[in-house]
Predict the structure.
Amino acid sequence: MILALFKPYTCVGDFVVPFAMVPLWSHLLKYLQQFYIVAVATVVLTLLWPVLWYLWVHCLNANSNFYFAVTLAFVLFQSFLLSDLLYAKMRRDYAFEHGVIQKR
């Protein structure tokens, strides 16, 4: 996930592995604050990504800046997801430490 954040033109494969690992952190879902925003943005950008690539490469109607903007937005929302997961982990650990929730 960290490597995909720093590449200028990322590919879909750079995002597949981190998003495939999100179900491993399903116990943190109730502590996430930006999950719906990140989920909607991910779906919209995933649909927009191939459309802008097609317009840029095949139709020659768009330039590379449109494709780069989608990639940049995707990286932005992926960093939101990463920071939200880390914050959710800290909130869950705090709740365990102070007895707000019981360990199973």
Q: What stands out?
A: DSSP finds four helices and no strands in the chain. The longest helix spans residues 64-97. The mean pLDDT is 85.
